[in-house]
RNA sequence: GGUCAAGUGGCCGAGCGGCUAGGCACGGGUCUGCAAAACCCUUUACAGCGGUUCGACUCCGCUCUUGACCUCCA
């Protein structure tokens, strides 16, 4: 499998440091607000990577952090902790906020069928480790203490190692373009960043440290927790493109500073951003959509609610390194496509290869199906091109529907190819893409029962009743299919 | 201003130096008590201008446009 490594700006063959084990770390959410559509993208994408690596036989340890302390908000509340700020607004304990939004994040990710990572460490749970790590960097003389705060010395680091290797930034250019911020006077250099910040009297979240009461810097937690659980060097580090600089750049610097220059990560992966109607999503732009709003259709920009699986499918229909634009039209198209795919999934699970001896093997059909299956995995192995992979599923779906309409035609392909297609189609959708039917077995049984009455009415040519039942199905987003071979139901794609 | 991406048919969205992406929408047909679904057929492309090449949507240059990062952000 090849993956695009931001470090080299190239697709590279994926070779774990210690096969069959794979260590993967992804930057998780800052839990001070409701999860938004931008949070869904990395969660879903790296979930598919996690699933696919396991499908390929790797033993993956997946770590995704919860940031519950330490990130600055913006200039107006400089130096203030996001969580603490929110806590003041809502007059509650910071940990209450953290807990609330962590729960909400996990709940919505569960809905999106995002598997929980193997380890979900929190920044507040690793204060000691962060203090120790800061000490290690101080011991290397690559950080300095000012006024109870500890800053990373980018210039000193630059003497020994290279700063900017991930983002391609040149230190001198950075310095020329840095704008004036408060608190800069404590730094020797504007490019320096905090490892430990002294807490002001009104700051609520604070811990004791060798340098006084304070809280950890903004980039430190990821370095500390990734290396704690995955080792000094590990395979994959992921996150949104916006984290490339400065966040991930600083992570590399911190890790190398503390570990004699060892680069911490072999493959850096970054997903692209989400836009709304072609614009960057931002609170100030009024197009900020939370996942809750998307699922309930309550945002003014949304015409309707979209189901969790529609959202998941929508995200995967684009390649992860392209921007993805959320619009009603695009979401609606994804909803229809998703239902079509799921209808195919229901069909293929029930399909059986005919018993009869007479075969009418068709080289062309056989070849096409093999080609689709082949391309399916080639697409995944080429930097996880889920868009191209899904296109193959639809190609297969066309064949499956043909066989469904005309079961005797199944013998156009060999039993072996049929079995492979059936297995791959189901496994790929459910296990790798993590897309599933949004329905319970109980409901399905009720649908089947009602369909039984439809069949009876049909047999007695009671068309009034037939139409009534059909209308009832339609109301409940289901359709009845009258086929030559029998009667069946499916999800309405409208 | 600096750095980096991208501009594909009505919409979304892949891809490649010559061979159908796919989804949604549109049009025609098959099937049907009437439908729906499904299937079959069909239409609309690669921002502009140059260059390299036997041949470019695909490579190079310029122009225009959009976006991201440079400051918390997935």
Question: Would you spell out the secondary-structure blueprint of this structure?
Answer:
Blueprint lengths: L1 E4 L4 E4 L7 E6 L10 H19 L3 E6 L17 H9 L3 H18 L15 H13 L3 E4 L2 E4 L1 H7 L10 H7 L15 E6 L15 E3 L3 H11 L3 E7 L3 H15 L6 E7 L2 E3 L2 E2 L10 H6 L11 H9 L7 E3 L1 H23 L12 H19 L4 H20 L9 H18 L8 H19 L3 H13 L2 E6 L2 E6 L3
Parallel strand pairs: 3-4, 3-9, 9-10, 11-13
Antiparallel strand pairs: 1-2, 5-6, 6-7, 7-8, 11-12, 14-15
Helix pairs in contact: 2-3, 4-7, 7-8, 10-11, 11-13, 12-13, 15-16
The protein binds one RNA strand of 74 nucleotides through helix 1, helix 6, helix 8, strand 12 and helix 11.
Tally of domains: 3
Class of the largest domain, according to the CATH hierarchy?
Answer: Alpha Beta
Instruction: Note the quaternary state here.
Output: single chain
Low-confidence stretches are 72-78, 178-182
Helix and strand composition category: alpha/beta
Our measurement of the CA-to-CA distance between the termini, rounded to an integer number of angstroms, reads: 37 Å
The CATH topology of the largest domain comes to Rossmann fold
Q: Shape from CA axes? A: elongated
CATH H-level superfamily title of the largest domain: HUPs
Please state how the strands of the largest beta sheet are arranged side by side.
4-3-9-10
Helical content (DSSP H or I, runs of 4+): 40-55%
In percent terms, what proportion of residues is strand? 5-15%
The average pLDDT score comes to 89
DSSP helical segment count: 16
User: Rg from C-alpha positions?
Assistant: 27 Å
- Total number of beta strands: 15
């Amino acid at each position: 499998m090849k993956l695009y490594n931001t470090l080299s700006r190239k697709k590279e063959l994926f070779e774990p440091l210690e096969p069959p084990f794979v260590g993967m770390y992804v930057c998780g959410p800052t839990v001070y607000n409701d999860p938004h559509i931008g949070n869904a993208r990395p969660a879903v994408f790296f979930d598919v990577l996690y699933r696919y690596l396991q499908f390929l036989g790797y033993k993956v340890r997946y770590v995704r952090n919860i940031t519950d302390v330490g990130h600055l908000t913006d200039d107006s509340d400089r130096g203030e902790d996001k969580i603490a700020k929110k806590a003041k607004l809502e007059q509650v304990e910071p940990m209450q906020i953290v807990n609330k939004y962590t729960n909400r994040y996990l709940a919505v990710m569960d809905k999106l069928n995002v598997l929980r990572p193997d380890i979900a460490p929190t920044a507040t749970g690793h204060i000691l480790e962060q203090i120790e790590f800061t000490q290690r960097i101080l011991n290397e003389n690559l950080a300095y203490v000012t006024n109870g705060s500890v800053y990373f010395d980018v210039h000193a680091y630059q003497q020994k190692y290279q700063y900017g290797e991930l983002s391609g930034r040149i230190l001198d250019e950075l310095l020329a373009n840095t704008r004036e911020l408060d608190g800069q006077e404590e730094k020797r250099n504007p490019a320096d960043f905090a490892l430990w910040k002294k807490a002001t009297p009104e700051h609520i979240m604070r811990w004791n440290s060798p340098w006084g009461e304070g809280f950890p810097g903004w980039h430190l937690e990821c370095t500390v927790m990734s290396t704690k659980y995955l080792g000094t060097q590990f395979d994959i580090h992921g996150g949104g493109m916006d984290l490339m600089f400065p966040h991930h750049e600083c992570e590399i610097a911190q890790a190398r500073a503390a570990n004699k220059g060892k680069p911490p990560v072999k493959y850096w992966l970054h997903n692209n951003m989400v836009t709304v109607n072609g614009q960057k999503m931002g609170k100030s732009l009024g197009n900020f959509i939370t996942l809750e709003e998307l699922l309930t259709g309550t945002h003014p920009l949304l015409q309707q609610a979209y189901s969790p699986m529609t959202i998941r499918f929508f995200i995967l229909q684009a390649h992860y390194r392209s921007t993805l634009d959320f619009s009603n039209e695009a979401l609606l198209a994804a909803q229809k496509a998703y239902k079509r795919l799921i209808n195919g999934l229901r069909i293929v699970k029930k399909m059986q290869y005919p018993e009869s001896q007479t075969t009418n093997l068709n080289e062309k059909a056989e070849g096409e199906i093999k080609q689709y299956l082949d391309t399916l995995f080639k697409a995944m192995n080429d930097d996880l091109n889920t868009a191209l992979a899904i296109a193959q599923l639809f190609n297969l779906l066309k064949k499956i529907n043909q066989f469904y309409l005309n079961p005797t035609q199944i013998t156009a392909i060999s039993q072996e190819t049929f079995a492979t297609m059936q297995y791959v189609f189901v496994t790929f959708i459910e296990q790798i893409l993590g897309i599933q039917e949004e329905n319970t077995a109980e409901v399905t049984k009720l649908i089947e029962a009602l369909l039984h009455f439809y069949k009876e009415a049909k047999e007695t040519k009671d068309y009034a009743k037939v139409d009534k039942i059909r209308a009832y199905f339609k109301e409940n987003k289901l359709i009845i299919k009258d086929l030559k071979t029998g009667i069946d139901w499916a999800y309405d794609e409208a």
